[in-house]
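Need a sequence for this fold. Nothing fancy.
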């Protein structure tokens, strides 16, 4: 696994970006085709011919995949670059962009699990069930029907795959800089993880 990760860091980043976008597109298409289309409320709207707006939004989601990823990677790489600069690690911005890109593949796993869960184990879900479910997240420890709306996103964001993403970032910084892993942990946790926590706190504080 370690050698595979190192090889991905050295792989052509343009091809990896295209692959990530393609896999995300296919997973999104599968979710909308096999799960969302079976939700009773959507079926009624489809029969009434009132799904035009939803189809438009779906189309924008597909088109926006590379734009969202590019924006996310650009911001995240910049935040970690600042952390590297603070600790004296000489890693270029393009290298960090590649590290963030490779780490993002971890978030495809919960999408596959979510698709499998609703396809094979849950019959006739409603849209709220679908939107509230995130595998191995803190949200799954609570009854989301009784939670205030402002806690839905933060508790979903705190999940096992987010932690795996942090570990991937640490490993990427460690392999690229070829220095102590302990410092790589300091860099990622004092930059990206800290900003991630601040973002969740900010979300809760402004949500009405």
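Here you go.
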């Amino acid at each position: 696994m370690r050698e595979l990760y190192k090889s991905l860091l050295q792989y052509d980043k343009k091809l990896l970006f295209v692959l990530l976008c393609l896999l995300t597109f296919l997973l999104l298409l599968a979710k909308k085709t096999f799960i969302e289309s079976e939700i009773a409320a959507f079926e009624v709207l489809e029969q009434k011919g009132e799904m035009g707006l939803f189809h438009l939004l779906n189309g924008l989601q597909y088109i926006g995949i590379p734009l969202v990823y590019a924006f996310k990677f650009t911001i995240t790489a910049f935040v970690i670059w600042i952390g590297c600069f603070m600790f004296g690690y000489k890693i270029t911005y393009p290298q960090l962009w590649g590290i963030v890109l490779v780490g993002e593949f971890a978030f495809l796993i919960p999408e596959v699990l979510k698709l499998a869960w609703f396809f094979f184990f849950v019959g006739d879900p409603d849209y709220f069930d679908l939107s509230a479910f995130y595998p191995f997240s803190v949200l799954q420890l609570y009854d989301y029907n009784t939670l205030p709306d402002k806690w839905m996103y933060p508790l979903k964001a705190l999940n096992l795959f987010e932690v795996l993403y942090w570990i991937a970032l640490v490993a990427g910084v460690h392999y690229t800089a070829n220095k102590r892993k302990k410092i790589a942990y300091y860099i990622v946790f004092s930059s990206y993880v800290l900003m991630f926590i601040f973002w969740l706190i900010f979300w809760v504080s402004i949500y009405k």
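For context: The two ends are 44 Å apart (CA to CA).
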